[in-house]
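Example S7 (structure tokens).
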């Protein structure tokens, strides 16, 4: 049936008009786009690193650090497990991959083994008849620890980069312990490196106010404490504090952190809030230690050590210090994103200039224009007036593809431009199938109306089948590919869907409208 319902015609025209409106900012310069009426969308297609330039960073997760940390925790497990049952031991020491000690009473070996297994089920425990214990993690567990550290680091890096407002960053695992980070539009990666270079592991610890700083500097520290530097300065030197190793509250219990101004002093501060568990622990600690110094430790440095003047029961607090607006916002960003499980080392850093991207855009634009013009010439030469209608639909295919990418904020890369050119070729292929079918029906003696109807209806299944198989391949490329491959798959997928609309719906509307107005005796094919 050649009759197209009125509502369907309206939908086709509205979809075409929407494509023109949303694609307009991408077809014009930024200055001209800014001067368009307010009702015209201003968003443009996001350009990838290879088109607009930006920063390329290759980061390495220090997995050895996380293993050392787990070994240190294993050493603390020994102390904790033996404290309550009062099991005596000597020579407790930690090496690069193991913890060892000797029981004072070898008769309690089985009891000690059971307690250690309850404390850490992943550790491998060996003991000699004389009570010498060695605890280490098997290689299987170490591999899991390293893999989990890299996975967590990727997620934290993603959160931190997203907080900076960078559009369409590419964050991928490379190898076993490396992360590839590409930041389009960032030509100075220094601030990003500073944000990623900080582990941002924050803890709240009590200060040992009875300990002597001079004795601590000589190495005579009370058990369970350590000497940490501060950002405060005293006599031209960084002030130091003797703080307990045990963290009373940790930063992973934070739910929010925001930079702000102190209402009384006007200085920049960071306001934070704990979750329910953190709020309860924070309240209990401040209630039991009124009058003591409470150190806020970030990456091994005391950034603030206020006096607990009264219990803080609301679950929120404030970090003050020598903050600027930038440093306060950066600290709040780090706390919101969470702490890295291990430090990140920058192995490779490259900056892609915008000139290279401009050349790529220019070359890609020329390729699209030349390809479109060649298709136009061939279609007009092969199908005459119907070729002109196909060229109009083909142009709308390109416009709608850009419009959809703009609405979805999909990233256009250099391989993506190749996907655009390929989708143009596939779009015109549908018109060729329809027109060839019309020719066959005309040769069989059918009337123009009957030939057009048969051309569209009988070519539909062939067009649908060929486009569906290509779309499946594009979806698989996107699912299993990365970087440039994904950019190609995105534009190809959108172009295929757009071609189904332009070749079947829009071209059909143009042909039927002309046919009803002209009522030709024969089709101009």
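Recovered sequence:
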């Amino acid at each position: 049936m050649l009759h197209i319902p009125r509502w369907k015609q309206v939908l086709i025209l509205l979809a075409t008009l929407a494509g023109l409106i949303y694609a307009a900012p991408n077809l014009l310069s930024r200055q001209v786009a800014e001067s368009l009426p307010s009702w015209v969308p201003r968003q443009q297609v996001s350009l990838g690193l290879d088109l607009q330039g930006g920063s390329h960073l290759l980061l390495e997760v220090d997995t050895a650090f996380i293993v050392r940390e787990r070994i240190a925790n294993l050493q603390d497990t020994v102390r904790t497990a033996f404290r309550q049952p009062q099991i005596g031991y000597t020579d407790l020491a930690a090496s690069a991959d193991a913890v060892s000690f000797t029981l004072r009473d070898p008769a309690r070996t089985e009891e000690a083994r059971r307690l250690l297994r309850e404390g850490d089920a992943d550790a491998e425990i060996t003991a000699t008849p004389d009570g010498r214990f060695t605890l280490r993690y098997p290689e299987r567990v170490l591999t899991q620890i390293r893999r989990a550290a890299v996975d967590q680091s990727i997620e934290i890096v993603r959160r931190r980069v997203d907080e900076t407002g960078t559009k369409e960053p590419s964050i991928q695992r490379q190898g076993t312990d490396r992360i590839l980070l590409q930041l389009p539009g960032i030509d100075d990666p220094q601030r990003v490196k500073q944000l990623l270079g900080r582990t941002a592991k924050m803890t709240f610890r009590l200060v040992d106010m009875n300990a002597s700083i001079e004795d601590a500097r000589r190495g005579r520290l009370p058990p369970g404490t350590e000497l940490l530097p501060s950002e405060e300065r005293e006599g031209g030197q960084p002030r130091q504090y003797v703080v307990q190793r045990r963290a009373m509250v940790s930063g992973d219990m934070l739910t929010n952190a925001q930079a702000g101004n102190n209402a009384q002093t006007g200085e920049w501060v960071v306001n934070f809030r704990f979750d329910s568990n953190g709020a309860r622990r924070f309240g209990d600690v401040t209630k039991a230690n009124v009058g003591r110094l409470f150190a806020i430790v970030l990456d091994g440095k005391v950034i603030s050590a206020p006096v607990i003047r009264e219990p803080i029961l609301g679950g929120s607090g404030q970090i003050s210090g020598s903050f600027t607006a930038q440093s306060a916002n950066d600290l709040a960003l780090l706390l919101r994103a969470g702490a890295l499980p291990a430090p990140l080392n920058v192995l490779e850093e490259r900056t892609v200039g915008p000139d290279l991207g401009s050349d790529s855009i220019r070359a890609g634009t020329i390729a699209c224009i030349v390809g479109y013009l060649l298709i136009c010439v061939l279609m007009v030469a092969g199908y005459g007036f119907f070729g002109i209608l196909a060229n109009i639909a083909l142009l709308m295919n390109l416009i709608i593809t850009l419009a959809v990418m703009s609405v979805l904020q999909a990233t256009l890369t250099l391989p993506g431009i190749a996907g655009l050119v390929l989708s143009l070729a596939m779009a015109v292929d549908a018109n060729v199938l329809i027109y060839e079918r019309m020719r066959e029906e005309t040769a069989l003696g059918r009337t123009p109306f009957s030939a057009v109807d048969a051309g569209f209806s009988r070519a539909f299944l062939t067009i649908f089948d060929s486009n569906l198989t290509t779309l499946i391949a594009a979806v698989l490329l996107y699912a299993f590919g990365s970087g440039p491959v994904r950019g190609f798959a995105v534009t190809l997928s959108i172009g295929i869907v757009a071609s189904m609309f332009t070749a079947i719906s829009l071209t059909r509307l143009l042909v039927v409208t002309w046919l009803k107005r002209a009522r030709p005796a024969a089709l101009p094919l």
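Notes on this example. The chain is about 55% helix and 20% strand.
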